[in-house]
Design a protein that fits this description.
Number of helices: 46
Distance between the termini: 83 Å
Strand content: 5-15%
Mean pLDDT: 83
Radius of gyration: 33 Å
Largest sheet: 5 strands, parallel
Low-confidence stretches: 258-265, 472-487
Number of strands: 13
Length: 962
């Protein structure tokens, strides 16, 4: 890399962000992002292939890791626009990049520790705030599914907590006990075993006159340490408790010399307390101590002016001048307002520069005169080298010397605190969840929060929380002493909207249809003129009406309040239906394109790419039924079939297919596919009769079409429903027919693999594990060749089940572990619990019943958490509980199975064997005899011979005959 080349910057304290020469770089694929960060964290040192493979894919026997890494590195080089940064060195890879935020945080932390050693609490607080300001959220937030990133992210966040503790310790030393207590309460709740944090909380409570509460907190800590860790508190904690009891006078704050007071400043007197943004305030005050141009940018109501005024008041030793730009209508009025009495002279700019040099000039609300403000600010700074200019504006001035500081939403704790302080007396202490929902509904921006809090004088907090959807009409009355544009949320948004050109207004209202943010390509799809979109989005971002996220490329998002406002404008323009139709067409094209580019969603990355747009996809699907767009909605539902199956979203799929399967205008092929897909998802929901009806209709329609793909789909799903409803002998016919048809053309290879996998499952259920093993091994070879991660997730889990039937327990565990790797990448919540069952059955076979119970309960908990109904894990856990003598719980689990599964289905047949075991254990020999007789007949009739359950039935029969 040449010395002149800009160095790549990598930001890890939050979601990954990458920059080159100050410009964002999109690294879209998760594994490429993970490789980039892993190498960046190595600080330019080479990381060997074997270490990288373990860090990226986990401790599994990965096929061809070196080749995989070579492909991954090649893709990363193509993505970062600086391929020379990534080099092959000594059997590994090295990467030249600068960890910008981590480096800055470490430097600030070093300053903090130096200040702590010298006893400078002000400097400790300032340095800690500077370090913490580098975080944009949980560290490596978007990489936590990658093995190494879990550990790295947790370590970085633990460091963040340590910095927070140091800052709060300094706050207490500076006498800010009341303010620190609120934050300490929240942090202590999140970290219930962090002794220093709880000691600081106790100290803050003690210093605010709450000795009893302080002792109660430490008693709670003592109890948790004993219950969860079996240890006593550390000596420092015990000493703190004793000092609190004795009311040690050294616990009270010591006098600290305050910073030099600021000179008198002519700024509006604050009518209310300043809440939140303490880190931003400290950083801004420090920056205003130096000459130059700083611009606070943010949307309407984001708190730009208030932060600017608070910072200006805190500036030490310098004169401050405020110029309100909002009332100005003429371009020339900007210079007149700044120059004041010198405006009529021969050189008003020179006179103003001479008068202002060495001071702080605050230019408030420049968005409507931004060009004139930029020109004048640049000229003033050139003539007055000691001048500091602080501007508030919805968009930056676009000057080379400008330092832009965007206004972010308040954090959740500060937002709730602001709402509480501004609300009616009887509303304080309201339900925190309702308060959080209200604050989130107004984007956690100060104006919206204060307006919402004002409504508590007429509405209760629960009433207000229920009316969030009507926020635009509710938030219309603000303080009488506020400027006109701040008297309501609508007025603030009207002010911003009036400053936009026609193209920007059109793009704003059209993109409001996206409920979950949008990409440039999506915005172009719904626009009136796609050529307007890119420049309009730039302008809207500059005006802080939308945010830009550098995660997986560029993503734009309207604030919720702005989106609500823009949807109203869309309705006024009569464009709602046109925009919704265009959005649906975009959704279909997007999902189909992702599927085509990755061989029908073969990789976890393609599935994740689709679900990154899930809120938008769900929104358009829900709006399609009953409209002229219904047939396009059906096409979207068909395109989503594989991603839905991979994520186990059967109920969601069934809901949309029920609503859209009969859409007018659908082709026969679409109708056959919809009915077949519906039959499959209903099967997975246990609604076998409805599934069979749907598939019968699909098969009849398929016969009218000369299309083997449609016929194969119907045959495959027919075999699945026959297997699941216990018609095992009948299932061989469609499966074998499907295999024969699939072999007629190479284009059906994937469906051939699916039929072979289903045949393996049929062999398991009919007591032929060796044949099942052969089928699964064939499928896995094909899935590895295709790179089909979903196929491997499912196939390896099925293989593990067959291996258990052959008592090859070590091989079964190995297959389940590899299956877990793919299932976790895909978030496949159907396969993950099946692998827990595999581990449980192996443990039981080896005599470790406690471990078996742990794994089986983990599998059941998946079903409970996902509300997906009973699974085979319920049956196997009940079987184990009978062995352990826990008969009541076993009976309860079996009752749940019989309540939800149709008679003679595969699950029902399996559960009957366990029920006979339970009856015998309960001493009810007559019931056990009846169950054995009836179940044996059912097994003979259906062909059910799964050894896991036939063995149990044979054991009961033998016991009854003794």
């Amino acid at each position: 890399m040449s010395p002149e080349s800009p160095q790549l910057e990598v930001l890890v304290l939050g979601p990954l962000a990458v920059r080159l020469g100050g410009n964002p770089v999109a690294v879209d694929r998760p594994l490429e992002r993970a490789l980039l960060v892993r190498l960046a964290l190595a600080g330019g040192l080479s990381v060997p292939d074997h270490r990288l493979a373990t860090d990226l894919w986990g401790d599994i026997d990965l096929a061809r890791p070196t080749e995989r890494l070579r492909v991954l590195a090649s893709r990363l080089r193509g993505a970062i626009d600086a391929p020379e940064s990534l080099v092959r060195v000594n059997g590994g890879y090295a990467f030249a990049a600068r960890l910008t935020d981590l480096t800055a945080a470490r430097a600030a932390a070093e300053q903090m520790h130096a200040a702590a050693r010298s006893g400078d609490h002000f400097a400790v607080r300032t340095a800690a705030q500077a370090a913490l300001a580098q975080w944009r959220g949980p560290s490596l937030a978007d990489l936590r599914t990658v093995p190494y990133a879990v550990v790295e992210g947790e370590q970085l966040d633990a460091w963040r907590l340590a910095l927070q503790v140091e800052r709060l310790d300094a706050e207490l030393a500076l006498g800010h006990a009341a303010e620190a207590a609120r934050e300490l309460e929240a942090l202590a709740a999140e970290n219930p075993l962090h002794e220093r944090l709880w000691c600081l909380l106790a100290l803050s409570l003690y210093r605010t006159g709450r000795q009893a509460d302080a002792l109660t907190r430490l008693a709670k800590l003592r109890g948790r340490l004993a219950d969860e860790l079996g240890v006593d508190p550390a000596p420092d904690t015990a000493a703190m408790e004793l000092r609190l009891l004795r009311q040690d006078p050294t616990l009270l704050p010591q006098a600290v010399a305050p910073p030099t007071p600021a000179p008198t400043v002519k700024l509006p007197a604050p009518m209310t307390s300043f809440v939140g943004r303490h880190k931003e305030l400290a950083s801004l005050v420090e920056r205003l101590g130096e000459p130059g141009l700083v611009t606070l940018t943010g949307g309407p109501g984001s708190g730009k002016s208030r932060l600017a005024f608070e910072a200006a008041r805190a500036v030490a030793g310098r004169a401050v001048r405020l110029v309100e730009l909002a009332p100005l209508q003429r371009e020339s009025a900007v210079l007149e307002a700044i120059a004041g009495d010198d405006a009529g002279g021969h050189d008003p700019l020179g006179a103003a520069a001479a008068a202002l040099d060495g001071s702080v000039l605050v230019l408030d609300n420049a968005e409507h005169v931004v060009e004139q403000t930029a020109e004048i600010a640049a000229a003033l700074l050139q003539r007055a080298p000691a001048l500091t200019v602080l501007v508030t504006s919805q968009r930056p001035l676009q000057l080379a010397s400008e330092e832009v500081r965007p206004m972010r939403p308040l954090d959740a704790l500060d937002a709730a605190r602001l709402f509480s302080e501004r609300s009616a007396v009887d509303a304080q202490g309201a339900d925190p969840e309702q308060v959080a929902a209200i604050c989130t509904a107004v984007d956690r921006y100060p104006l919206g929060i204060e307006l919402a809090a004002g409504l508590t004088r007429t509405l209760t907090v629960p009433q207000l929380a229920k009316r969030l959807a009507d926020r635009m009409r509710l938030l219309v009355a603000g303080a009488r002493d506020a400027q006109l544009r701040h008297t309501s949320l609508v007025a603030a948004l009207d002010w911003s909207h009036q400053l936009l050109g026609d193209a920007e207004r059109t793009v704003l209202r059209r993109t409001a249809v996206f409920a979950g943010g949008f990409t440039l390509e999506a915005a172009e799809q719904v626009a009136v003129d796609p050529r307007d979109v890119a420049p309009a989005l730039t302008e809207l971002a500059d005006r802080s009406l939308l945010t830009v996220e550098a995660v997986n490329g560029r993503r734009f998002r309207l604030l919720e309040t702005v989106r609500d406002y823009a949807l109203g404008k869309l309705e006024e323009a009569g464009e709602t239906e046109l925009a919704r139709a265009a959005q649906l067409e975009w959704a279909v094209g997007f999902v189909e394109a992702v599927g085509r580019s990755d061989d029908d969603f073969a990789s976890a990355e393609s599935v994740a790419e689709v679900f990154a747009e899930w809120s938008n996809l769900l929104d358009v699907l829900d709006r399609a039924p009953g409209t002229d767009r219904a047939v396009v909605g059906l096409r979207l539902a068909l395109a989503l079939h594989t991603p839905w199956l991979i994520r186990g979203m059967y109920a969601e799929a069934a809901r949309h297919l029920d609503a859209l399967a009969d859409a007018p205008g659908a082709t026969t092929a679409e109708r056959v596919t919809a009915l077949s897909n519906r039959g499959f998802v209903l099967t997975m929901r246990g609604q076998f009769d409805h599934a069979a009806e749907s598939l019968t209709e699909a098969e009849a329609l398929a016969r009218t079409q000369d299309d083997d793909t449609l016929t194969l789909t119907a045959l495959y799903y027919r075999s699945i429903v026959e297997i699941e409803r216990g018609h095992l002998r009948d299932a061989f016919t469609p499966l074998l027919a499907g295999q024969d048809l699939a072999r007629t053309s190479p284009q059906h290879e994937r469906r051939l693999s699916a039929c072979t996998d289903a045949l393996g499952t049929l062999y398991v259920y009919t007591g032929q594990p060796a044949k099942a093993l052969e089928c699964y091994e064939t499928c896995i070879v094909a899935d590895r060749e295709y790179g089909d991660e979903h196929g491997l997730s499912r196939g390896l889990s099925n293989l593990a089940g067959a291996l258990i039937g052959l008592e090859r327990y070590d091989d079964a565990l190995q297959a389940a572990t590899e299956s877990d790797h793919y299932a976790r990448r895909l978030d496949d919540r159907q396969i993950l619990p099946l692998n827990e069952v595999i581990r449980g059955l192996v443990a039981i076979a080896r005599g470790d019943l406690d471990a078996g119970e742990k794994f089986l309960r983990a599998a059941v908990e998946y079903a409970i958490a996902d509300d997906s109904g009973v699974t085979h894990a319920y049956i196997d856990l009940a079987d184990l509980l009978v062995l352990q003598g826990e008969l009541d719980e076993a009976a309860s689990l079996l009752d749940a199975v019989f309540a939800e599964t149709p008679e003679h289905s595969t699950s029902w047949l399996a559960a009957r064997a366990v029920a006979s075991t339970l009856a015998l254990a309960q001493g009810n020999r007559d019931q056990a005899t009846t169950l054995v007789t009836e179940t044996t007949t059912a097994y003979t009739r259906t062909g059910f011979a799964w050894p896991r359950y036939t063995t149990r039935l044979d054991t009961v029969r033998a016991a009854l005959n003794d």
